Amino acid sequence: xxxxxxxxxxxxxxxxxxxxxxxxxxxxxxxxxxxxxxxxxxxxxxxxxxxxxxxxxxxxxxxxxxxxxxxxxxxxxxxxxxxxxxxxxxxxxxxxxxxxxxxxxx
Length: 106
What we know:
2 helices; about 35% helix
């Protein structure tokens, strides 16, 4: 499955099948949250949160790809990610784009 942030596939004619998305709501764990609080005292990257968000993006992307495959898509174009806090200590990560079928290669 091709995943592109641009709205087309270079050298191909495509047919849009519809918007697809994948989402996950991830919560912080108490140990990770405590260590993050400690890190704010000295500065630097909070690797626990970086890892948590990387995993969340991967899961959201997989769910989006699964939805695109159900539509018979060859690719997802216009791929975007979003995130928001849904409650204290929990964030949603969303992956979305347009599922497309390659009609012909130029």
